[in-house]
Write a structure and sequence with these properties.
eight-stranded mixed β-sheet, alpha+beta, Flavocytochrome C3, Chain A, domain 1, about 35% helix, five-stranded antiparallel β-sheet, binds adenosine-5'-diphosphate, 2 domains
Amino acid sequence: MPAVQNYDVVVIGAGGAGFAAAVEAKSKGANVVLIEKMPTVGGNSLISGAEMNVPNSWVQNKLNIKDDTPARMAADTLKGGDFKGDPEIVGVMTVNALPTAEWLRDTVGVNFEKDNVFQFGGHSRKRALIPEGHTGTEVITKFSALADKMGIPVITNMKAEELVKDKDGRVVAVKAVSGDKEYTFNAKGGVVLATGGFGANAQMVKKYNPNIDERFKTTDAPGTTGEALYMAEKAGGQLVNMGYIQTYPICDPISGVIELIADARFDGAILVNQEGKRFVEELERRDVISNAILKQPGAYCYVLWNDNIGKISNTVKIHDTEYQAFTKQGIMHTSDTLKGAADFFHIPYANLKATVDRVNQMAKDGGKDLDFHNRGGLKDMSTGKYYIIKAVPSTHHTMGGLKINTKAEVLDKNGKPIPGLFAAGEVTGTTHGTNRLGGNAYTDIMVFGRIAGDGAAAEAKAR
Ligand code: ADP
């Protein structure tokens, strides 16, 4: 591979935002390269559940959810982030959610479940599209195939280390290393930073938020280490909201990985503590649930559901690999009886029975949760099988990052765009405020990935 290479657009980071940017730029006629520091592509976007919030989607229509709007989703998003997200950015994200999802479906070829949507915590409607298999594998596989077909070189094991500016302050190239070799990727139109967050960099997490210390493991892909934020800061980029770091409440106490199998929570599974008592609304925001769990005895909780709830999204079957692994680890148990579930984890059965009896009573009375106001409503749990899994919070998403404008241009410390530098995805810090709502990362990375790719391609044409 030549040490110096010339492109119109250089995209750094082959996760969802990077692929969206690269494909979009290429489709606008730009000569694009996508570089990735890890041996494989996908980043957090691959291991994520990859659900994507889309108001007015074809699935909502089919399910007769007719009263959702971008404005409603924007209101939920801003509120969910304590009004620290940028309303203009959130507006662009929510208005473009539907056309972007249609693009993923029709151009990229992503298969979404046809008759199921999730209602993540903090959302007032069921609006998250679910990719087939309930993980990012469906999305990243389709993107990889499309990039290949379109002739976009995707270069792995290639780590961007420096953004090069010309004498006018325009970003014109990226210096990168692969093994002990150095490469320069010239970018006529622009560079798109799509390097993700820093959740897997424990030191950096603690530096910006000392509350999230050594006690926390991470759900994140190993490449989520955030050096690119410093690289961009060196080139003049403004970092904002860096202390807003989200822990995901429901993770494996041993490895820290997310328990996607426990997504049954979005269909009615309840959270109980070691005493067998509920303690928080199951569809609360992630930060609220995480903090509530940390206050319980042992700083962990259990997610409990039965077949009546499980049959809705069938997470046990869909996440069979997790099911086998968690069961083998001894953090998950399946039982025909509630007593069996309680006994396995030494939860006082009388307490758990009282909790579940009360849930059943409220389910019978229409599902209204008089205790914790579960906004999805409570479901009957009177019959088995029962599924129970132990869970702890783990570092998940870094809301802070580069300040961008609605064109995905990176802003400097005076709020002025840095010519030739775009950013999209978790590397940016403007969308989510203090707390990202579930299903909003995919909407954010796809909408702004495309905007960044489009902007950089347009710059290349103009020069
Ligand atoms: P997003 O959801 O914002 O797309 P992801 O975590 O899915 O973020 O993807 C970011 C990708 O960027 C990861 O695959 C990560 O390994 C890669 N990456 C991070 N830093 C660099 C870097 N300096 N050079 C190249 N790739 C990087």
